[in-house]
Amino acid sequence: MSQAKFEIYRSEKNSEYYFRLKAANGKIILSSEGYKAKYSCENGIASVKNNAPHDARYDKKTNKAGQYYFNLKAGNGEIIGTSESYTTADSRDQGIETVKSVAPDAVIEELS
């Protein structure tokens, strides 16, 4: 079975770097904002790895369409990753548990 991984890629639209955390099944469970420099993107991944195990770092939200999602925040309150949208609060909470368990040990793969 494959393992969870962070993928670093560069957008063709704006030339910024992004990361996404994929579960072992290949599903994207957390995505980043854009970073102008690759090292900043790598620092974002390090921050996710450090903050993921802490319950207090997760901000549970509901969007305008009534779907559920969460933000993972750094110690300073800055958002470092946003989840996909979920149809139920239970699914969102399971997504949080997945990030907590897989992010700290996820490998990093560079796509760009």
UniProtKB/TrEMBL annotation:
Pfam families: DUF1508. Residues 13-59, 64-110 form the DUF1508 domain. InterPro entries: DUF1508, UPF0339_domain, YegP-like_sf. This is YegP family protein.
